Amino acid sequence: LNINDINSNWLTGFTDGDGSFSLLVSKDTKGKLLCKVQPVFTIGLHPKDLPLLEKIITFAGEMIIVGVPKF
Fold first, then answer.
1. What's the pLDDT tens digit per position in 34-60?
2. Which of 36, 37, 46, 60 has its CA 20 to 30 A from that of 28?
3. CA distance 54 to 59
4. Residues 49 and 4: beta-carbon distance below 8 Å
5. How confident is the model at residue 70 (pLDDT cuts 50, 70, 90)?
């Protein structure tokens, strides 16, 4: 897969199969609010697919923060 092949339509379809959106709700211990809500975008991939994830990060720019689970 070439980086030029990744676009918003491709990422939408890929997310439909291997990703999800959720909201993380937690107590706001530092502010004056009762809680804070953070949107979370998750893609579940096998470690062998790291090159694909790197291409997705390049496409999405600073919108994505990468966390690697322990296997």
1. 888 888 888 888 888 888 888 888 887
2. 60
3. 9
4. no
5. low
Phi, psi (5° rounding) for residue 42? Answer: -125, 135
* pTM of this structure: 0.61
- Amino acid letter, 71: F
Q: How far from chain centre, in Å, is Cα 6?
A: 15
DSSP 1-66: --GGG--HHHHHHHHHHHEEEEEEEEE-SSSSSSEEEEEEEEE---GGGHHHHHHHHHHHGGG---
Asked if residue 68 has pLDDT above 80, the reply is no
Which whole-number Å values give the CA distances from 43 to 4, 6, 61, 64, in the listed order?
A: 20, 15, 15, 10
